[in-house]
Design a protein that fits this description.
Order of helices and strands of chain A: HEEEEEEEE
Helix content of chain B: under 10%
Number of helices of chain A: 1
Strand content of chain A: 35-45%
Helix content of chain A: under 10%
Number of strands of chain B: 11
Strand order of the largest sheet of chain A: 1-8-3-6
Largest sheet of chain B: 5 strands, mixed
Distance between the termini of chain A: 19 Å
Order of helices and strands of chain B: EEHEEEEHEEEEE
Structural class of chain A: mainly beta
Number of strands of chain A: 8
Largest sheet of chain A: 4 strands, antiparallel
Radius of gyration of chain A: 15 Å
Radius of gyration of chain B: 16 Å
Shape of chain B: globular
Oligomer: heterodimer
Distance between the termini of chain B: 41 Å
Largest interface: A-B, 41 and 41 residues
Strand content of chain B: 25-35%
Structural class of chain B: mainly beta
Chain lengths: 146, 151
C-alpha cells in the first residue's frame, strides 16, 4: 500500500509535444522526439493536454482542442523490452477534465518515447499544425528499472 | 486493443496541513515567452509542497484578491489562465516541475481533484509562470494569478 501512495506523489513533471505537420488523415501516426530527461526517468503518470489546459504550446503552436481527444489513440512502448504496455488508449482517458479529474497511473517504468506514438482515428476536430502535448509525471532514478 | 491493467488511481491529496496563496502580480499583459517570477515565499522554500492549485475569477472561485497593502486586484479569468505554464526550480539546473499548464492544476477543470506533489527545496524566487499564447487578454489589468500551495 505504501508503494502505491508513493507512486501518486509527483516528484517531477514536464511536457513533450508532437506537431501534426501533415494534413490530418485518419490512420496517420506520429511519434515523439527523444527527450534526454525522460530517457532517465521512471514514468508513472501521463496526461494529454488540450487547449482547455494550455492554449498554446511552449514552442508557440496551437494545442489540439479538447473535442479532438476522442479522435486520437495512444500507444506507449517500454524501454529495452519494447513491450507496448499500453496499446491504442483513447485520448479522452488521458484528459482529466474529461475523466472526472482522474489521471491514469502506471507502475513506474522507463518509456521509449521515440517508439511511442499516437494515431489519428477521427480527424474531424484536428487541424494542420495543431500540436499534441503530453505531460509526464516521473521520478529520476529513485525506483528500480522494470 | 485497450489495456485494462491500468491502475486508475486518483492523484489526490487531502487539504490538511498548511496552505497559502502565492499571488503572481501582472501589471500588464506580459510578452509571449516572458517569465514572470513568483514572489519569494520562505515557508514554501523551507517546506514540502504537497499540492498546487490555480484559481480563476471564472465561475465561482475567486473574483477579487487583496494584494499587498489591501489593494483589491482582479483575479485572472479562465481563458487567460490557460495561456500560462508554471516552472518550479530548485536552482538553475534543477527544475522538478517544467512548464506545468496552469489549466491542468485548476480545481474546476480537475473536477475538484488535486495533483499530489512531493517537492522539497523549491526556490520560489527562481520559479516562474510563463506566457505561451499570443492571444488578447480579456482580464482587466492589473490582475493576479493566484496559486494555492498546500505544504
Amino acid at each position: 500500500m505504501s508503494n502505491i501512495i508513493a507512486n501518486l506523489a509527483i516528484y517531477n513533471s514536464l511536457i513533450v509535444e508532437a506537431k501534426i505537420n501533415r494534413t490530418p488523415q485518419n490512420g496517420d501516426s506520429y511519434t515523439f522526439d527523444f527527450n534526454s530527461t525522460l530517457a532517465k526517468a521512471q514514468i508513472y503518470g501521463i496526461e494529454l493536454i488540450t487547449a482547455e489546459q494550455l492554449s498554446a504550446s511552449p514552442s508557440g503552436n496551437t494545442v489540439i482542442a479538447q473535442n479532438a481527444a476522442n479522435g486520437l489513440i495512444f500507444t506507449f512502448t517500454q524501454y529495452k523490452t519494447e513491450l507496448q504496455f499500453t496499446q491504442d488508449m483513447p485520448g479522452t482517458r488521458l484528459v482529466p477534465s474529461l475523466y472526472q479529474g482522474i489521471t491514469p497511473i502506471w507502475k513506474p517504468r522507463k518509456i521509449s518515447l521515440e517508439k511511442s506514438f499516437f494515431q489519428i482515428t477521427d480527424n474531424t476536430n484536428l487541424n494542420l499544425n495543431d500540436t499534441v502535448l503530453l505531460q509526464f509525471f516521473f521520478e529520476l532514478d529513485r525506483t528500480k528499472e522494470i | 486493443m485497450i489495456n485494462v491493467f491500468l491502475n486508475n488511481s486518483l492523484l489526490y491529496v487531502p487539504t490538511g496541513g498548511n496552505s497559502l496563496i502565492i499571488p503572481v502580480y501582472l501589471n500588464a499583459a506580459p510578452p509571449v515567452g516572458k517569465k514572470v517570477l513568483l514572489p519569494q515565499t520562505q515557508v514554501i522554500d523551507e517546506g514540502c509542497i504537497k499540492s498546487i492549485e490555480s484559481i480563476t475569477s471564472t465561475g465561482t472561485e475567486l473574483s477579487i484578491i487583496n494584494y499587498f497593502n489591501s489593494q483589491a486586484v482582479n483575479v485572472i479569468r479562465e481563458n487567460d489562465l490557460i495561456k500560462f505554464s508554471l516552472t518550479l526550480k530548485i536552482d538553475d539546473n534543477i527544475q522538478p516541475v517544467q512548464q506545468l499548464p496552469l489549466g491542468s492544476i485548476n480545481s474546476d477543470k480537475r473536477k475538484g481533484k488535486k495533483l499530489a506533489f512531493m517537492l522539497k527545496n523549491i526556490n520560489t524566487r527562481k520559479s516562474f509562470i510563463q506566457r505561451h499564447d499570443s492571444g488578447a487578454f480579456t482580464t482587466l489589468f492589473p490582475c493576479v494569478v493566484p496559486l494555492i500551495f498546500y505544504y
